[in-house]
Amino acid sequence: MDLRPFIDKFARRYAEVEATLSDPKVFDNPMRAQELSREYSRLKDLVATGQRYLKVGADLKEHRALIAAEPNGELAQMAREEIAQLEPEEQRLTHAVTMGLVPPDPADSRNTIIEIRAGAGGNESALFAADLFRMYARYCEGRGWKVEAMDSSPSDLGGFKEIIFGVTGTDVFKRLKYESGVHRVQRVPATEAQGRIHTSTATVAVLPEAQEVDLDLDPEDLEINVCRASGKGGQGVNTTDSAVQIIYKPTGMIVRCADERSQQKNKAKALTVLRSRLLEIKIAEENAKYAAQRKDQVGTGERNERIRTYNFPQNRVTDHRIELTLYCLPTFIDGDLDTLIDPLMANGMKERLAGLKL
User: Fold this and answer.
1) Residue 164, strand partner residues
2) What is d(CA 35, CA 32) in angstroms, rounded to the nearest whole number?
3) What is the pLDDT of residue 305?
4) d(CA 74, CA 64)
5) Is residue 307 a contact partner of residue 321, using CB atoms and an 8 Å limit?
6) Which of 37, 41, 271, 276 is the most exposed place for a label (fewest CB within 10 A)?
7) How are strands ordered across the β-sheet holding 243-248?
């Protein structure tokens, strides 16, 4: 594939964005300015990579012509040595420029809301949901992202029937969006006296955080109720009406937040979750490659719908979408997720590239 037309296109767009950002008026709209700044940074790297690709291609052409003209000369031998170094570089640059043809997902730079729910397996699935929460929290901590709890429903044995939390940072959704789906665990539960291996599941939904400009919520469509937050006791618990529940009347969707003692903070968090869920549905309706309903993302939680299996007796984690198995479960469950996230991102880029009409 001839990449020169695409490199020229990157260069033209780069010049356009640079000229736009030089106008102070563009910063009157902070969101627009932020989008342009991100595009400028991406195009700057692409243009530099493209120019390097063209230079390497020209050098290779020159060296090959030299060999063809004088195959047995001393200069030809030097040209062969140069070619041996330049060909791998050309392959790397070709891949980089080709990947640049895939337009970035507008949601990639968004903060993210993650919802984990216990699936099949009873109490063990709730304990697994808690393990997944700790896994993601440690991963986020390692990348310098901020994790903020929004709502949770603890189980009797210390796990979670459900936990919802927000993640703030750079490229959060870009890296975590592939975690959506059914996660399956195979291990001997602490409550199992006979040492038998049990299989249970938990569902994970990763939602890009919606902004007010994405969705116009009509106050008439919202039924907002407050109640006392539940908990295990302690000062400030069950003493004020701080928990907030919002019902979105058009669909019956219910969102609850009770993490903060402040009613206003809980209301703001609940509205954020509601907008993010509605934005996900909106994106799904507009893009046929995504599910039309939220349940299609995470399935029903049944064991045969898994995207990933965590097998503790075999010390392995397997991602079934790319058929990749790693034997490093302890470090993976402790937050070392990049060993799978990086291949998933690469596979996602290849799938998007294959879908482009070039």
Assistant:
1) 115, 151
2) 5
3) 66
4) 14
5) yes
6) 41
7) 222-227, 243-248, 253-257
